[in-house]
Amino acid sequence: MRIINIALLGFGTVGQGVYELLEKNRDLLKTRLGLEFRIKKILVRDKHKKRELKVPRELFTTNFEEILKDEDISIICELMGGIEPARSYILSALETGKQVVTANKAVLAERGAEIFETAKRKRAYLGFEASVGGGIPVIKTLREALVGNQIQRIMGIVNGTTNYILTKMLEQGLSFEKALEEAKIKGFAEPDPSLDLKGIDSAHKIALLGSLSFGVFIPFEKVYVEGIEEITLMDLQFAKSFGYIIKLLAEARKIKHQIEIRVFPVLLPENHILTSIRLNYNAILIKGDFVGDILLYGLGAGKAPTASAVVSDIVEASEYLISQNSPLIRYPLKEDKELSIKPIEKGIFKYYFRFSALDQPGVLSKISGILGKYGISISSVVQMGRQKKKGAVPIVILTHESEEKKVSLALEEIDRLEVVKAKTQSLRILE
Amino acid sequence: MRIINIALLGFGTVGQGVYELLEKNRDLLKTRLGLEFRIKKILVRDKHKKRELKVPRELFTTNFEEILKDEDISIICELMGGIEPARSYILSALETGKQVVTANKAVLAERGAEIFETAKRKRAYLGFEASVGGGIPVIKTLREALVGNQIQRIMGIVNGTTNYILTKMLEQGLSFEKALEEAKIKGFAEPDPSLDLKGIDSAHKIALLGSLSFGVFIPFEKVYVEGIEEITLMDLQFAKSFGYIIKLLAEARKIKHQIEIRVFPVLLPENHILTSIRLNYNAILIKGDFVGDILLYGLGAGKAPTASAVVSDIVEASEYLISQNSPLIRYPLKEDKELSIKPIEKGIFKYYFRFSALDQPGVLSKISGILGKYGISISSVVQMGRQKKKGAVPIVILTHESEEKKVSLALEEIDRLEVVKAKTQSLRILE
């Protein structure tokens, strides 16, 4: 039976998951594929660190060159994360003629242009299914299943941490802080969760998904990003009372030659399929010109699901190895000088505003007067009853479609009113 | 640019969809793959039939041999449906060394053993993504994305016609007949919809999905099948009042060495993700030992989504052609003499019973007495108020987990009671 030798770079959660999968399902893979996968080297920082998983000591190395020079090793899995040294290792591996599998969305979103270019030039396999959506086969679906489709739109919930927090807040009436604390305890939020909470993780993923969808490399910096740190329980509850659920949405659309790409919290109508995605689950909704709408749903992170995706790429890399044929170029992601990204300021949305205003006569009239001045038309208003203690009360206004630019100007003016006591919460509504 | 010549067998809805896709997205496919796809021959019954689609007359042939002998043609797409002559054509094509793509679940579910065997022996590509779930990439996900997983369970809504009918009945209070009529008008039910309504279409699909999931050929006849023809609006409404939605579920599970495989209408709790699948949409939920639960959702039939799946297979077949390498055998579907399918009689389920009983004192006691005698324990009862006109009234009982066999015996005895005026409706509940 043919043996495929693999090296793992990094032996954290994902690396250990891959090791466990290849051990546990060794016979299954032999039966299915007629191949035996062997992990020959594992790059770690400390060979002597105590590890829970029983792994033969001789597999560990601290020297990347040793892996690179080992001609038996044909597939290198980069499972370290971060930009450097991941980027250099991936590039060296490709240059040396190795097949590469990575779970690293950050390096692809931020340095993808040179990595994809190198893979293409060296006609090497570059698998990155695990970089987006954990075990959900979104990359495979985009590149293979939907290969015959013009992709018109891709949108989804691609960050489990924030989705867990928003779900817990709404369903159990928790504050943002409490929900975050719970997510940390459950292992759904990292000790420093800011990349997740600020939407950066989602932005990395949508940059990659958008690039694949539209066949052009979209640099990460071009993604408009808002996180969920400003979302309060009150917002979730007000939205719900209007029939909406707030989700952190990552989205890329192509309208004629212009691309819209962004991550932001939005109000989705309760009957939208993405509102049924709860807790740490992820889901991605893709619209193709022939296939229509396709939804993929599952665990978007975690040891076992991510290992499942890495192994699927290892198998694919093996097929290319065996056929000694370079893969069809399914991701001609050139840098596009003419790439046109529509700035968020040019967007047109419906809005949810929550004003914090003094409970005085004439306040609503002032606020709505300013909205009217900027041509922002109101569809619903809720003003809370008088509070016992003196202070600001929330006024919630939903609008018809309005220009983002005018909304910014209007809110700036409103927030300067003396009766307005805090920055207005403004969220977009997607129907 | 390399040209890939294709023949289509059949030029109905799907065939025309494939033709349209390859025309409309020709440039896209060139850019993505560096390949040009050309339909060289189309097998039809009548060359001179008037067709809406403008197709050069010379592409049509009525002679399959002409296609088989054409050495330019390397990929044959069987899009006729039915068992014969589809089966013979597929086998001849494989024997001749052509790559085959088919959208025909019936021929694979009923004659798959010899077809898979032939493909394997000839080391030919056999694509059948379009045979289950239309444009939803369930075959690719099972065979490729989840290749590292033991599949523990696959379940879903794989028939759009019945799902459309059940949705319309529940949401608009339509009778079965009215909903079916509407489905026909909308083109979601065929003129003779019995294969769909009786669950046969779903059974074909789950036979195939179960076979792929468990790596053993499960003959179609082994699938336990119930359709939806006996489901009444009353059942949907009663179920809803208990917090359940009735769906036609196709399901295959493996527990140790025994397989459970069946199609039946079941009551699913309202918060189950499959209850959010409405109208003619399909969804498949797969549980793997590493990936956890994955859901795939989309349009399960129709011209364009099915064409999308066929083209994805055509592209894959082309990759094998180009690499001149036979595909890894990802579906070692041997016939298994020891295949153990658990008979439905040995099942244990919770049940929903709707009795049609005379509105007399003591009736509930008689019914519950018989249930008790067979060890069937009741969890809820609803007895309708006295009707104005004399006659049977519905009594609905939900049970705790009970043995299917004892349930059959109990219902037989109950249906013989003089106070019971019609066959009892019995449906299983899945939590």
Strand residue percentage of chain A:
25-35%
Q: Tell me the radius of gyration of chain A.
A: 24 Å
What summary fits the major beta sheet of chain A? Answer: 12 strands, mixed
- From the N-terminal CA to the C-terminal CA of chain A, the straight-line distance is 54 Å
* Main structural class of chain A: alpha/beta
Oligomeric composition of the shown chains: homodimer
CATH arch. level architecture of the largest domain in chain A: 2-Layer Sandwich
Helical percent range of chain A?
25-40%
- Shape type of chain A: elongated
Q: Please give the CATH class of the largest domain in chain A.
A: Alpha Beta
Residue-averaged pLDDT of chain A, rounded? 93
Number of domains of chain A: 3
What is the β-strand count of chain A?
18
Pair of chains with the largest interface and how many residues each contributes: A-B, 62 and 62 residues
CATH topology category name of the largest domain in chain A = Dihydrodipicolinate Reductase, domain 2
Low-confidence stretches of chain A: none
Query: Total helix count of chain A?
Result: 14
In the CATH hierarchy, what is the superfamily of the largest domain in chain A?
Answer: Dihydrodipicolinate Reductase, domain 2
